[in-house]
Specification:
The complex is a heterodimer of chains A (252) and B (222). Helix content of chain A is 35%, strand content 14%. Chain A is of the alpha+beta class and 252 residues long. Chain A has two domains: 111 residues, Beta-grasp domain (Ubiquitin-like (UB roll)), CATH 3.10.20.30; 120 residues, Fumarate Reductase Iron-sulfur Protein, Chain B, domain 2. In chain A, the strands form two sheets. Chain A has a five-stranded mixed β-sheet with strand order 2-1-5-3-4. The longest helix of chain A has 16 residues. Chain A is elongated. Chain B is mostly helical and 222 residues long. Chain B has a single domain, classed as Up-down Bundle (3 helical TM bundles of succinate and fumarate reductases), CATH 1.20.1300.10. In chain B, helix 2 crosses helix 4 and helix 2 packs across helix 7. The model of chain B has no long low-confidence stretch (mean pLDDT 96). Classes of the chains: A alpha+beta (252), B mainly alpha (222). At the A-B interface, helix 6, helix 7 and helix 8 of A face helix 1, helix 2, helix 4 and helix 7 of B.
């Protein structure tokens, strides 16, 4: 796939969590505008490997915008300049010939760099483990429609459940806050009957874990919502506030 | 009560405290701005002086004055605590940040705007609160209105006050609607109205307050 884009890439290179990183500048040429951003990095990496250099480490898996693995901070924005897409769904036609692109890893106390552009997002897993689950009986699954759920509630829960846990909200937030992620996970369960059994304890447990992981508080700037590739609304953060304080003030 | 202090020290609790104290200060500003706006009645400050005297003598108002300082102090300390906590959460800064792409500059600058407001408040309290409450300079011949006229003869003071009002306007523009979000009050039925009222409130309060030193300095009211 040959193209006519010539780009200057400033990429954060960091050997591991213990060593300090720095920016390296690379020139790539003949990039097709139909390539995804990750394919453009693949082209660079192929060259680096041929030249005997260490390729740029970055997270990726499905490359179709649903897994939440890719995580590049491109020219000052998580997942780059386009709205509602992950880095893998960002195409090089969004850039112009001769442009300089600065690529950084997610920056957060709670997301330490593993190597280059790869960060450790296991803090999200521990927030889920603290309360983002429901209890179900073993045995046969019950009939899907045995619990009546209003369509609006189902839709809202589904919209919250669209969160792929990529961490763009943390990366975008000036406080590296994980409120949008945590609130989406709390919301999807709070809105459904299956989530009621653990509801009174869920928000408190997940917020406590979120704080312990070292994420910041919310300044209500709305940057997370604007940068979220799945369009998760900050209405979920308000719901988390309600869930949390109704639990704090009414639980026994 | 351990449960309460634990919750108020959580990331959500700090914001709840910020929202409650913020809305309390919002309610105070309505009273303060409304009373001061009586100078625009062009009655030589008679109504304004009567109002000021009522505020100085009424025991309920005097008690609320202490509550007000308490609320202001809580708002400042909680803001300071949030700022100190939050800045630790990103130890390595980004080389490039395109903040304007996803949020308003004033929503990201509440700490800075608040600090400017605090500096302004120190000057402002020295000018009027200290003068009227802690000195004997207030007399029948030299009323609070006269003192306002005297203070605002200086163009430097007028500029400081106008800058203070601009900081206040932007602080309120974000703070008003942000407080409701922190309280969990985000709903399609109410949020558009809250945002609208917040914007109108911020602009009206800031513009009215800014108009006072300007009008007095240029002798536009009598």
């Amino acid at each position: 796939m040959e193209g006519n884009l010539n780009l200057t890439l400033k990429i954060w290179r960091q050997k591991n969590a213990q060593t300090a990183g720095k920016f390296e500048t690379y020139q790539v040429s003949g990039i097709s505008e139909d390539m995804s951003f990750l394919e453009m990095i693949d082209v660079l990496n192929n060259r680096l490997i041929e030249e005997g250099d260490d390729p740029v480490a970055f997270d990726h898996d499905c490359r179709e915008g649903i897994c939440g693995m890719c995580s590049m901070y491109i020219n000052g924005r998580p997942h780059g300049p386009n709205k509602g897409v992950t880095t893998c769904q960002l195409h090089m036609r969004s850039f112009s010939d001769g442009q300089t692109i600065t690529i950084e890893p997610w920056r957060a106390e709670a997301f330490p760099v593993i190597k280059d552009l790869v960060v450790n997002r296991s803090a999200f897993d521990r927030i889920i483990a603290a309360g983002g689950f429901i209890s179900v009986n073993t045995g046969n699954a019950q009939d899907a429609n045995s619990l009546p759920i209003p369509k609006d509630d189902a839709d809202e829960a589904f919209a919250a459940a669209a969160c792929i846990g990529c961490g763009a909200c943390v990366a975008a937030c000036k406080n590296a806050s994980a409120m949008l992620f945590t609130s989406a996970k709390i919301s999807q369960l709070a809105l459904l009957p299956q989530g009621q059994a653990e509801r009174s304890k869920r928000a408190e447990a997940m917020v406590a874990q979120m704080d312990e992981e070292g994420f910041g508080a919310c300044s209500n700037t709305g940057a997370c919502e604007a940068e979220c590739p799945k369009g998760i609304s900050i209405e979920n953060i308000a719901r988390m506030n309600r869930e949390y304080f109704s639990s704090v003030f009414t639980s026994k | 009560m351990a449960w309460l202090s634990k919750s108020l020290n959580s990331s959500l609790g700090k914001k709840l405290l910020m929202a409650i104290t913020g809305l309390f200060l919002v309610s105070f500003l309505i009273v303060h701005c409304g009373l001061n706006a009586t100078i625009f009645l062009n009655d030589g400050g008679v109504t304004f002086n009567e109002g000021a005297e009522f505020m100085a003598k009424n025991p309920i108002i005097r008690t609320m004055e202490i509550v007000l300082f308490g609320g202001l102090l809580l708002h400042i300390l909680d803001g300071l605590r949030l700022w100190m906590d939050n800045k630790k959460k990103r130890p390595v800064a980004y080389a490039v940040v395109d903040g304007a792409a996803n949020s308003k500059w004033y929503s990201r600058s509440m700490g800075l705007l608040g600090t400017l407001l605090l500096l302004f408040l120190i000057i402002h309290l020295k000018h009027f609160w200290y003068f009227s409450r802690l000195t004997d300079n207030l007399t029948e011949e030299h009323t609070l209105y006269n003192e306002m006229q005297a203070v605002f003869t200086s163009p430097v003071v007028v500029i400081i006050y106008v800058l203070g009002c601009i900081s206040l306007g932007y602080h309120l523009l974000h703070g008003f609607q942000s407080a409701f979000q922190s309280l969990g009050w985000n709903h399609p039925k109410y949020t558009p109205t809250i945002k609208c009222i917040g914007a109108a409130y911020a602009i009206i309060i800031a513009a009215l307050f800014a108009a006072m030193p300007i009008a007095l300095h240029f002798n536009l009211i009598h």
